[in-house]
Design goal:
Low-confidence stretches: none
Strand order of the largest sheet: 1-2-3-4
Strand content: 5-15%
Order of helices and strands: HHHEEEEHH
Largest sheet: 4 strands, antiparallel
Helix content: 40-55%
Number of strands: 4
Distance between the termini: 38 Å
Shape: elongated
Radius of gyration: 27 Å
């Protein structure tokens, strides 16, 4: 029995969409939020400007400045997740493990801004690692593969009526030219 590709494609498209609906919704919503992270300070704090362009303060001065922020809970280097040095802006972003971000001037070691940074949590939701590494690999990766299949079947279903119409017109136009 030959496969009816039109019916198979419709069923695959329909069931694939149901199968990945929830993970794809998470990926879509978090993706939209991440697209706006530079425009929405609730997601990622705006980057300030420091007094200079060249780093003139030591790592110890940066740590001392970060310790002055009670929300961050920084007692030592073990409490810091990362430093993001922005020489063109004259600042260093100190990110604590508890997601608080402290922007320190690279010339004066003055704290310019303290804000909670949500973009990293949203990114981990987006790629599925927030749930567990196995969820990332066994749910979100297959979801991406199924969405690729939905795209392919959707393209096929979109162009199928046009191809049928074109094939029906082709013999008629060939007979008309005789």
């Amino acid at each position: 029995m030959p496969i009816n590709w039109r019916i198979w494609t419709r069923k695959t498209h329909r069931w694939g969409a149901i199968l990945v609906a929830l993970p794809f919704l998470v990926v879509s919503i978090t993706g939209i939020i991440l697209q706006l992270k530079k425009d929405w300070t609730w997601v990622q704090p705006a980057t300030q400007r420091g007094a200079g362009k060249l780093p003139e303060v030591s790592f110890d001065a940066i740590l001392q400045a970060a310790r002055t922020v009670p929300e961050a809970g920084i007692a030592g280097w073990q409490d810091i997740d990362r430093l993001d040095v922005r020489p063109d802006r004259g600042i260093v972003k100190v990110q604590a493990h508890n997601r608080w971000e402290i922007q320190v001037d690279l010339k004066t070691a003055q704290v310019l801004q303290v804000a909670y940074r949500r973009s990293d949590v949203i990114e981990s939701l987006h790629d599925g690692s927030w749930f567990h590494d196995r969820v990332k690999l066994w749910v979100f990766l297959p979801t991406a593969v199924v969405v690729l299949g939905l795209w392919l079947t959707g393209i096929y279903l979109f162009f199928l009526p046009h191809a049928v119409r074109w094939s029906r017109q082709k013999p008629a136009s060939a007979e008309a030219s005789k």
